[in-house]
Design goal:
By secondary structure, the chain is mostly helical. It has one domain (2-78). Helix content is 66%, strand content 0%. It is built from three helices and no strands. The chain is flat, with a radius of gyration of 22 Å.
Amino acid sequence: MIGERLGNWLSWQRLRAKTWGRLALVFLALLVAANALFLHPRHPHFSLEAIPGFWAGFGLFFALAMILVLKKAVAKIIGVSEDFYDRAQ
């Protein structure tokens, strides 16, 4: 009974995935705006650190870079043919 209700709820939420994604982006934009308006670094270690939203952009850029690089690297490692282990030596 609980599993069925949970499954129905998860299916209902999956239909609203775009809405959840938009809400997450709005929330992140609000955090960057709060950084620009209210949270100023007192002693930035380098000049780019004083730019509002720098660390958000930095994190986004390197997360995307890691995804792209690791996708290429891992695809070569695990991208073997279907009969790779069944072939006779």
